[in-house]
Amino acid sequence: MPPLRTGIALPIEEIARKPFDFAAMFPGLSRIECEVGFCSALFLTEYANRHSDTGFLGIEKKHAYFLRGLHNLERRLKQDNVKIVEFDAGAVIMMLVPPASLDAFHIYFPDPWPKKRHHERRLMTRGNFRMFHEKLKPGGRIYAATDHPDYAEFIEKELAAVRDLFTRLPYGAADREVMTKWERRQTAKGIPITYYLLEKR
Ligand SMILES: C[S@@+](CC[C@H](N)C(=O)[O-])C[C@H]1O[C@@H](n2cnc3c(N)ncnc32)[C@H](O)[C@@H]1O
Questions:
Q1: Is the pTM higher than 0.90?
Q2: 63-76 and 42-50 helices cross at what angle (nearest 10)?
Q3: For residue 3, is pLDDT > 70?
Q4: For residues 173 and 83, what is the distance between their CA atoms, to the nearest angstrom?
Q5: Where are the domains of the chain?
Q6: CA 98–ligand 1 middle distance (angstroms)
Q7: Active site residue 150
Q8: Based on the number of CB atoms within 10 Å of its own CB, is 149 exposed (0-12), middle (13-18) or buried (19 or more)?
Q9: Is the pLDDT of residue 2 over 90?
Q10: Per residue in 74-98, pLDDT tens?
């Protein structure tokens, strides 16, 4: 199906040369948030529609999911406040997101990479928490969730290593304004989810 709306997807080869200029990307919007791994973009679309005063950068590395997400955004987004990039989020954030430019990260159910030799591929590492901290504005937040107990344990250790950077605030299922697709599925099955809300110090 042809795109119904142009300009949502940012081709990596066109944007990779210089850091994002969020003021130019989202004219008139001073709040900027980023979702990592948006998959079908059901959360991103609904959340962006509810927060029309905020610009959203979505990053998804898998081609099929990226296309599905783009399709949903093209059909359901009510205003021009979302841009998406198909690439590895770590690289995009490190290279293209300016320091102190984001109000929030949303990282829901990042791939758990259960094998020990693959742990270095995990997104929620102390190194990446330091990078997220650098990219957030003062008081900026990270919203995250996992349903993988071993990953949750790993995240606790990584957070302990950067405890001087973030304050962990109370946050749980009852606080969720919009659920992701995976979150709905796991919640319906009764699978426990660990939620995180971290505020930049
Ligand atoms: C388990 S799915 C969760 C999808 C969605 N957040 C949800 O909650 O329904 C993880 C998603 O993150 C994406 N992803 C994992 N690592 C990524 C990375 N380094 N950069 C961008 N996307 C990534 C995957 O392709 C997949 O779409």
A1: yes
A2: 30
A3: no
A4: 27
A5: 12-200
A6: 22
A7: no
A8: exposed
A9: no
A10: 999 999 999 999 999 999 999 999 9
